[in-house]
Fold these 4 entries.
Entry 1:
Amino acid sequence: MKKVGLFALSLLLMATLAGCGKEEGEEETKPAEVVEESETEAEVPEATPTEAPKPPKDTTEQDALYKTLSEWDFLFSSGAGGWGTDLNFKEDGSYSGMYHDSDMGDTGKNYPNGTVYICNFTGQLKGCKKIGPYEYELNLGQVSYDKQSGTEEIEDGVRYIYSEPYGLADTRTLRCYLPGMPVADLPEGYLMWVANMYFSGYYGADWEYGEDYPEELYFCGLYNEAQDAGFTSSCNSEDNRLYIKNRAKLPGLTNQKLDINDDGTYFCEDMDIYGYVRITNMCFKEEQGLSIYREEDKEGLIRECLEKTGYDHEPEAFYFMTGEYNNTEDIYNKLNGQEAFMGTWSEGGNEDYRYCMAKVYQNVNYSGDMGTVYTYAYIVEVDPDAELYSVEQEKMLMTGLTLAGTSDGLSTASQEEPSWEITGYVKGDGKGGLLIDEVVWIGWGDEGLMKKYNLTDDDMVNDYYIAEAGDGYVPYKVSDDCSFFLQFPEEGSQRLWYTTEEYDRRSSEGSEALMRIMLDDQDCVIFAYEPYRP
């Protein structure tokens, strides 16, 4: 089976569609009329009677939704075996598709080459109804088949059995999920079809299974609730419809540049006030077509990305995460279950030394004979003199990346401003806040603190010592944008980034962590990470 590349719509298009159809609770119409069948009239089984959605008052907005559907090629498949149902729409709301399956082991005297199940079908949408900002209900009208279901014929030694389209038979309505739909709001039945194919993978030398769900859907989805059948899609437009965002937002950074081009490519740059930390998030089009779609020349691809930043970069050598000996390391080579790669390097010297890393992902829009390759790069550069963030946090930050279907939130800068930092044992309070037992971290070579606490070199096990622990927990409020980074992922998870709610749940299960905590001038926690301890 072919692997489907997935892409997403822009937020601008979402705004155009926002008024499509009537809201739930309005008076419903009778079921949609039957469209004219094709030349070969198939006795299509009667669909289970359901109320069809009302057509929208403004047909211009309905046309906009139909145009959106025409820019995606839909597929219903499990990813295993050779079966699938393809579905394509046109801007006028008409659609066509094909169901196909094969059993090459099912042979007979007149069909030694096996058996194929097939159905070519057509139809015309009869309207749509808005369910939510990113969700619509489509009225399929009547689906017509080009061959009578249940009939068969033999051609070139193959038996063709004409059947119904799996996932669409006996169906009047489909749910449509536009790019940007929160994954948390998707039905469990729909996620069952797409998660194994797109939001999970096997990691490291031990081939461990892990899931990494994006926050929002980055392709257009269709769901047949009656048959519990979920369609994914790939973009057939030459324009980019996919974006990379970081779910973590960093206090102390400001957005310096944000350009989103007409073709969907973009360039975003964030920086701290001193220029010690710089984050570049970009997408650019490969003009040379598929010939530049390269998985082996990782170094060459990173160097090309660095040229796009406009800064002078002279990395001498790269290190690439492989996961060959470390399963945890391999999480950096995935992006919501999709194959990516991460490289690290250092450059400069003395005062301009920087430690850098980049995560790179490539995907193809199959919009022609060759297709268009888009490259996405998220580059982080940290000066050792940076007070806000260290190389350690730089690496953790990469696990907060997610594929997205809307262009808002490309910047990693938070609106929060850091005021001071503490270290302590942290657990959730079960109500969205934190309880912190503040301690003193004493590192190797800190002679002042070692003297204060009467410590000797023998006390500095693993080059650090924790003082004043156990004085009691103090409650702290947490900002809405606060991110938590832990050193090791939970079992089955493939990220080190956590929301406040997730960390609260983890700590309630006994996973209290020693963390460095960043606070604003109101003593509100705005960022927290777990330092490495041997």
Entry 2:
Amino acid sequence: MPLESIQSDTPRAVSDLFELLSVALRWTHVFAAILWVGSTYLFNFMEKSLERDEATPPNVRGRLWMVHGGGFYFVEKQKRLEGKYGVLHWFKYESATTWVSGALLLAVVYYRGGLLVEPGQNHSTGVVVGLLTIFGGWVIYDLLVRSPIGRNELFVAAVGWVSFVAASWFLRAWLSPRAVFIHLGAMIGTIMAANVWMRILPTQRKMLAALLDGKEIPSNLSATGPLRSKQNSYLAIPLVLLMISNHAPMIVGSPRMHWWVGGLFLVGFAVARVFRGPTHAGEGAPAKNSDGTMVHAVLALGLLLVAFVIGFRAAAAVVVTAPPPPPVKRAAMPRVASKKGVVGATTLRGSVTLTGPAPAPEAWGGAKLDECRSLRAATLPLVRATGGKLADVFVYVKAGLPEGTYETPKVPVQLDQEGCEFTPRVFGLVAGQSLRVGNHDAVPHNVRAPEFNQAFTRGETRDVPLENPSVMTTIQCDLHPWMRSYAGVVEHPFFAVTGEDGGFAIEKLPEGEFTIAAWHEVLGTTEAKVTVTSAPVATVELTLAAK
């Protein structure tokens, strides 16, 4: 960015600075995680691939011969130290770098970035609940694994599955869907990092002290590290799935998302079992642990099938039966016959009146985000009334039109993203008419509606479809959950949105008796009957009551 731009546009400079910080943290986090998980799987592979034969010395638990890159490597696991060796290499800073960078990302993107909670949820409470989940998960896991029942891996896996489902169900009341998944992933990452620093490394130091004293490593010490490392290899699979789930709104936006979490856990366990399945001692050699190969494969396939069925049924339930969140009440209107729709010469004029006091403005979600905070006031009035007349009300002909189809306008309807909000907030269009979405903000947005889900970078404009009739269709940003717009998608041109004075005009109505409906995002709906004659103007008055 040029220097003069930074000096003349401070909010954009701050936004770009935080964006660069976010990119740097993500880069560090992902690369450190690759090193950590990669070394975890390498050492688990070596642990279960060690071999002994008649020539193996008594002091050696097993040997492993490997090839990689330009050379061959000979690994030997000893019971006690024999001979002199060089520098001892520890594998610990990968986990620490991964956890610290992840914690900073959580603070920047969620705790400070405005993605932690949705409107109506308390930010401070969300932070407390999130932190309790992250660190409380480690305490519960550690107590479980150290208890006598922790020796049963299947039992631990079952408890983990139930805990995931319960945690996701509980967290949804306090956090946004994206934040729920991120905090569950952070909980797993904390468990894995704590396994390294609080269980594996202290044990390794005791093992080293025993070796330096010329003693044999006690069996209870030599078993702790491999057990926790193996469990880390299991946990890494659902952890990665949870982290990338934020790029799939179908998953994080599902009201039955707890089943998805359970499904992810099952998938992770199944895949981990496959990855930790049999290995080969060399080309042409039989597989080690071959008796368990089919058992692991069948278990993995079975769990994958269960996870798929659970996830598919949850998704189907969302699509087919789950009602959308209030106050939007979606109701698809029936298709009309193929003959041309009738138009007339009458203009229907009217206004929408608010009875009762208007609700107080709500806190604006963007006020918590650095790149948005300076763009708008800290509060956002969702009910805008001047002299008792309501703005932002969608008014349309709900019933009474003669059968027929109407031509779809070729000019797109414009929807802008500006100041970290959608403009206009309420609008209408004919089913099949293009919606032209533009992003005038310095930050990217991800715009989602039932018929599309697309990312928009700064300055980008694109036409998107809205084919299905619905009053109303919710359009929202997945990156900034407070951003919402509502589209009335109808099959005729007889609709309008009230202006600042609460008035509206619907042109070219034919003669007849019609039901006129009005919709407001907070106040709900109302209807009125009107008779249109050959007169050039007809009038109707609608009323919505404050709740």
Entry 3:
Amino acid sequence: MINFHKQSIVQATFLLTAIAFLSKILGFLREVTIANVFGASAITDAYLVASVLPGIVAGLIGGSLTTVFIPVFLEEREKKGEQEAWLAANTVLSVSFVYLVIATILAYALATPFLKLIAPGFPADRLAMATLLTRLLLPSLIFHGLLGILTGLAQSYKQFLIPAIGGFLYNICIIISILLLGRRLPPLSLALGNVLGVFLQVILVYLYLNKKISHIKWHIDFSHPAIKKTFYLMIPILIGTSAGYINVIVDRIFASGLPEGSISALNFAVRVRDLPISLFASSIAVAIYPTTSELVVANRNDRIIDLLNKAIRFTWLIVIPASVGLIVLDKDIIRLLFERGAFDSRATLLTAGALRYYSLGLFATASAPVIARTFYSFQDTVTPVVVSFLTIGLNICLNAILVKFMSHLGLALATSISGIVSFSLLLILLRKKLGTIGGRRLILDFSKILLASLLMGGGLLFFKNSLLNFDFKLEFIRLFLLILIGILIYGIAISILLKEERERLKSIVKKYVRRVVKF
């Protein structure tokens, strides 16, 4: 057995959260750079539409390979040993490369008709710009797929650091590319930064794994059982993951006929909404996945239920107050983050409005990946797919209705409602699968966290409107003080309402701090 130093769930969660925080800062700098150079304009709308096809294929292939390959690799290692597991890994890596090249060629052929499908409201010049950007971005598909497998291998050994910091390279490349080339060659600056960033991520994870082990080799065998199992399990995940991208496509279709800047506003709002998800919820989902996969092999459903409950409750402790804060401070946050350069007050109003409605479903959007990965741990990739497509139908219907009355705000609200329905269905179906999931405790804790968050929101409104009406030049200090006040109110309320979680969180933080000090 290869002697990797394994990170515990707590270590991994805190590590991923810390890295995600730093990466998110860079991510915001990337978005601020795009907003400053291009604003909520035609070039930004074209770039966001052009990113759909490469993003879909990359997300489908790269994300699903990571998700599927962890339980497959762990099962091979448990039953057949290290050598056979790595033979399977090399086979999957090599065969996937061949398929990725084919997928990229097909994507080039489908680029133009696909863009006409998802942006029917685009004028000819904006469509031409989107087509050029798509073709420049497509080589990243190969790198995304390889990165997915390499990340899965690292996470199988509970190594999360190197794959996580790869996001730094991605954001840095985009920022530098835009700053150097954005004014002169807008399309090239956006595409070059993306492709180079993903390529460097692949190189980083490969060099790390190759240094730790020397098992990565080229091996083509289309008949290997691991190939069949991996791609068999990928099919439902590909279909299920595509559901999320279908929702994106549907939103783009509806938004393409709205006033200029609507697509950009929705995108910037999603970036802000996703901050607590990226910092905490995603870290928790990634950290527990290898452990739940191991518990499934060991047939320890009791431990899985306990782990699931803790993960969901901890996620809610963070994202529910965050969503209330985003709703109350929507304009303040968007103004501080983006309103400069080409991003004007009109763009702030468009984006802040979308942020309010996106935030309503934040608790569900953040928690769903934890439940979905629990299904994947059981190698049940079908159930999340069925739920995804049911909610796609709901989202399309809601989009068609709400966009008529609320413009781009209706698209954001439809996304939140669909996310809540998806989360609820997944939780109900998981309860049927496991027999029990501690539902009463979850409902009680959700109610307490929501109450504490609403108390925080009321306090924020009071201080925002009455006590902190500072000059705009002090906007940063004003927002910082409001956030501190919100944290204080929420901390006091949650300490009273959830004593057990307070003690557990305090114990985890103390334990982690002691380890850091020893290190």
Entry 4:
Amino acid sequence: MAAAIAGALVLLLYVLTLGSSTAMWDTSEYIAAAYIMGLPHPPGNPFFVLIGRFFSILPIAPGVATRINLLAAICSAVSAGMWFLITERVLVSWFAERWQRIVGGGLAALIGATAFTVWSQSVVNEKVYTVAMVGVALIAWLTVRWCDDPDGPKADKLLILIAYILGLGYSNHMAGMLAAPAVGLAVLIRRPATLLRWKLILACIGAIVIGMTPFATQPIRAAYQPLINEGEPTGCVDGLKVDCTFSARTWELFKYNFNREQYGKPPVTERNAPFSAQVGMWWLYFKWQWWRDPYGEQQAMQAVLAALFLVLGLFGGWVHWKRDKQSFWFFGPLMFTMTLLLIYYLNFKYGASQAPELGETVDREVRDRDYFYLWSFSAWSVWAALGLVFVWESVASLFGAEQVKLGKSVIDLPRRRSWMMAAPVLLLACVPLVGNWGASTRKNDDTTFAFAHDMLNSVEPYGILVTVGDNDTFPLWYAQEVEGVRQDVVVANTSLLNTDWYTRQLLRNPIREYNKEAGPAVYRDREWKKPTRPVVALTLDQVDSIPLAYQLQDTVGFDACGTIRARIEPRIMTRADLYVLQMIRDNCGERPLYISRTAGSYGRELGIDPYLITQGLARRLVANVPASGPDTLLVPGEGFVDVKRSRALWEDVFKGKASFVRKDGWVDKPSVGIPALYVQTGFMVYDMLQTIGDQPGAAKALADAKAVAQATRISEFFNFSAVEQTPLLPGDSRPAVPVPVPPAPTPKQ
């Protein structure tokens, strides 16, 4: 009952700070995939998709995203309850009075639930990690129970149940198997003869296999060609059929997807960074857990608290060993597996925020990977709580002790009054709650959806939008598939265009109707003709024959639409480049084609930059080189800008400006290019309006840009004072302001 109450209180905390929308990185991909029963990036995480779909249709919250975010919150709350039970169990041999054990369990639940990464992952379902965490926590509690009575009447059933959860966890994420080595070692130490019972071993293997059966849904669902069908693990090309489902081709594609061969990660013997640096990455993220300081304002406090919680955890591990060796033989190896062994296995490059003084001299991950150590930080709460109880007892002893008989032993324990007098030391467990609230809460945060809304509405009806990475693609998928925003737009991601399955999907995807009434007013001045053919005039076989890459030795010309004359300099041409050029050639007069402004110089690399004109957050390809005029201006750093359209989008359509200001903060530095894009757009609109003599409009655009920069803590990258002190005269132009946009990431590690 006490553990259930602790879990309920944790869930209440998460509900109070729960996100009602999506977020950056994988959140949008996984919410959208779960909602439409699609396949997210390999290995596809089928168990998550199944339970995510179930939660998405439960009438427990007003929106799909909120419901799936609640799944994350519930999983983490249950995990907190498991850590409570394990901590209380360890304290049984230590304290005779249950209220003391309940306090210890409560400390574990509180510390684990409010660690930064745990909390932030629990209030918006970025991916599958909280589901994996609850599996690890359940296995931990069941194994501790088995260690208590390995010869009891329920012992074998517990092991079979543990095996089933291991298999089920693996069908959610590979981390589902994290607890397996520790379980095996606990069995070997507590009852080695168990390993000789072949019937039990076969039953456990069978349970694991049954647990992994959600993977069987992938070839079936993939054959129906859902709009998110990453990896496409099926040999069927025109619907589900028995012969193609049970074929060598399906097995080959399934294995390729299951083993994540798409990413080509090197073996662990080939280190991506020194092991010491990889441990340093873990330590950086460990420091974040107890007092997240995203803007570097309280580094000393963060370091002191990290050292304190590290020492508490190590003391707790020592106490665990001294007081309850039975469960330690499982939990100790589990902690080793989820820290040092996991660090070695993951073999990461330098972290995105790690060792900034090294700059670009080292290879880095495209984002911070603290979520891969979620289980480590969550389970650390057990040892941190044990260490804190040890400190509590030590301080209480200073206020007076008495002899108490515990079993056959007589020991000195603090008096009840002494416990109460020493209780203030327990407030240390509340520090992460206070220090992480601002960085972890997602309440009323709709910035990612607002960005997706604005990007899609920068594109004319039935347009093609070329994007380059996770954060300018996955939010658009969410907006289209979950919120129903601008489903007529074809999103073409260049990272994914380098795979054969994605190019086939773009060819097969249905042409969806433009909803004129739901669309922005800026597009209601005319009727928009619905395209009648796919995005490329190729067959599936022809699409499959596009080479992955080849070296362009000389400058070549590219002609399209009768008037476009592009020159492509020598470079490596990828499948994505060739597909984009084919889309340009096959959509003259059929569909407008845009390149997201997050794509940087991609238009220049394809030689089409002179034919691009900026409209809001995207750049449209036009048939003729633009020329300056009443509605077209040349802005340094942006090229030609459609003044009327960009102004209408900025002032009347875009939601992002208000969302960023309302959020008031931007914790994730690797994705800071998104709010920075709005600041740059505000400068662009300011320069436009100054040039045409609209001083009030220009001042409002600059004020909006400044508000976004201040809210997201990126004002240092923009010289607002210089702009405000030197207003433009009509006809002048201002040098472009550099924007700190990080390199485009590839979708997924």
